Amino acid sequence: METLYWKDNKLYLLDQTLIPMEVQYVECLTYKDVIDAIQTMKVRGAPAIGVAAAYAMALAENEGIDLDVAAREIKSSRPTAVNLFWAVDQVLKSVDDGNSAIETANLMAINDIRTNEKIGAYGNTVIDDGDTILTHCNAGSLACAGYGTALGVIRSAVANGKDVDVVCDETRPLLQGARLSVFEMQQENIPVRLIVDSAAGHMMQKGEIDKVVIGADRVAQGGVANKIGSLMVALAAKRYDVPFYVAAPMSTFDVDNNIFDVTIEERQKEEVLKFNGKNIASDETVVENPAFDIVESDLITGIITEEGIKKPL
Ligand code: MRU
């Protein structure tokens, strides 16, 4: 199942708000349609947002919009994943060099899959036969053009003949773990168990988790930003000596900035107030809804990239 594809000058995005109940693609005719899809999380996950943003630039090119104007708008769609900014800048540079935005976007989509396969190959070296691996949110093929980063590591280990069990945190409030990661693993018959977020520490305390592998929205000086809840998993992993890996492409690295200077997206209160469309607290309730948190470098065993396994910055 493709996360996104380009056909007849239109971008098609798998609507990730509907998975696993419905498989439906949204048609994007304009760059503003892509911005809307990014903001409403129809497409999500750092590398997928980056590739979608590159295609948004291609749509803007076809619409005859000034690419610098489109770039500014596209970049303001979500603040935390650096891949979005990286991808838009790559397109601007490539267009300056005489290429078209669409050529650049197509190449980026292909390269993303190749990169993830390399991440998977390096990641396989730290996975042992029989491991139970806990993951948070969805850093799978749905979060990328294909294959996935954290779930790519698991796919690679399975392809190399290792028996692995996967444990997915449900990942409140939007349940990317339950809806997307569990779905991806089930599609490939990889053994998977779903837990509520607060069960992760308990399972590590009982010695049931051998490794944690998560994705990243940004790797910067001092740590990594990833889906809210990653920090609590990392703290529990440190306490119970469970190796904690981050799998991310180099396009997620932001070496010039400190991770604590990165904007952590605050999303709408409705995401927390409602569960499955029903209110779980009154509409007047004051809500905090940070979408990401920061895992400090000393909690991270290694960052699995397409260039090898690196120390955190
Ligand atoms: O809010 P989301 O669903 O875009 O957040 C996604 C994550 O936090 C992923 O772990 C991260 O983007 C890495 S995806 C390979």
From TrEMBL:
Which chain regions cross the lipid bilayer? Answer: none
Q: What class of enzyme is it?
A: isomerase
Keyword match Isomerase: yes
What GO annotations for molecular function exist for this entry?
S-methyl-5-thioribose-1-phosphate isomerase activity
Top-rank taxon = Archaea
Q: List the protein's name.
A: Putative methylthioribose-1-phosphate isomerase
Which family, according to UniProt?
Belongs to the EIF-2B alpha/beta/delta subunits family. MtnA subfamily.
| Active site, renumbered | D217
What is catalyzed by this enzyme? 5-(methylsulfanyl)-alpha-D-ribose 1-phosphate = 5-(methylsulfanyl)-D-ribulose 1-phosphate
